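Project standup — Tuesday

K.O.: blocked on the structure for the chain from last sprint. Re-posting the sequence here as requested.
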Amino acid sequence: MLRPALKSLLPALAALAGVVALTLALQLWPLGWLVRADLKIQDAWMGLKTPLAEDAPSKLAVLVDIDPASTAEYGSWPWPRFLLAELIQRLVGLGAAAVGLDLDLSEPDRTSPERVAESLRKWRGLELDLTGLPDDMQDYDRLLSQAIEPLPVVLGAPARFSGPAADRATGAAWPLTALAKAAPTGLTGLAPDLDGVVRRVQLVARAGGGNPSSEGLTTVRAGREVHLALSLRTLLRALDRDEVVLAAGPDGFKALQAVAPWDIPLDREGGFTVFFRDSDDYTHFSAADVLAGRAGAAWLKGRLVFISVTADNPGGLLATPGNRVRPAGEIHAAIVDNLAARHFIVRPAETPAIQFLLILGSGLTSGLAFAFARPARALAVGLLWPAAVVCGSIHVFQAGGLFISPLYAVLAAALAGLAQAGRRLAGAENRLQTPRRQ
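H.V.: unblocked you, prediction finished:
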């Protein structure tokens, strides 16, 4: 016959096993609300990181906005590309180290005189005489390609994603061939997470799609074997480099080495989690001011300049952590700051194993306490263990940017405590209702 203590222990252990199994299943196949809660915890840890003097924006990136003031002066976007060429030439002339264009240049400029003449001939049977018009002003796409070819310019290719919450780019709207031959291209376009917040950018993508073709360290050329994000490609353009070293494993990408002798962490699809700070405050210039000569060289010399459209472009404003809405250009600038200052957010490859141990420890500690300890002591243990897990998670994040979510460990502790407390209450109620034997 089993002893009474063992009889009471077996049901408690069975309940704990069920709680641990349920929590592990939720971790492996999380529900939408759990995914959103996990992301919010990451945002909260980011906001708790102690600010240091070196955490201020590096001012390496400067943003030039085609804003309402620009469109009021020069007309609505898209502009004729001779005007875009002039804007780029002025920025380089003021000392910009490289210029990244977060613009969709996949369609030809329909205001080019040659295209206007072609349309009139096709649809109205009229001939437009272009005699006397300089050759470089007859096709604005050709003019732009000739203007940027000798300059440190990177074109943007808006990435396409497979769904509204997709985490992998499936293609891009590439610039016109004539432009792509004149300057390298970087990926733009950002996919929000389930809660509509942008936290991640596709920093590297294998040309042709798919996972890396080989494991280990591989030196690859940007634009041929891999495609890089506009921010990273512009930084490399300023350094006159087009090769990166990729680290890959059996499941996909792991890291890349591009601008310094340290690794930039990637998820297996080539994504990079951006570290946003509340103190981020980047230098903005209106494109109208640059074209009119009102932008000072002191603010542009040696900087990376990103041009984007903010006028009449609701899609260009994106929600980011901290309930802050930013233009896409500020996300490029934040990525450059992350790379320059080594501010990375990393989910270690060992995270699933660590979370399993935390779930197991939380479930056993809380469950056994609520099963056998007095209520006050059980409550103390049930609160202290999850608090220790949360504090440990914050500590490793602040110390090294490692994000190990405490969510499922806390969930396991809560479920185990509730299950055992409910079991004890049910047992007490049964004993009260059972008449004593004579």
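K.O.: great, moving the ticket to review. The mean pLDDT is 83. DSSP finds 13 helices and 17 strands in the chain.
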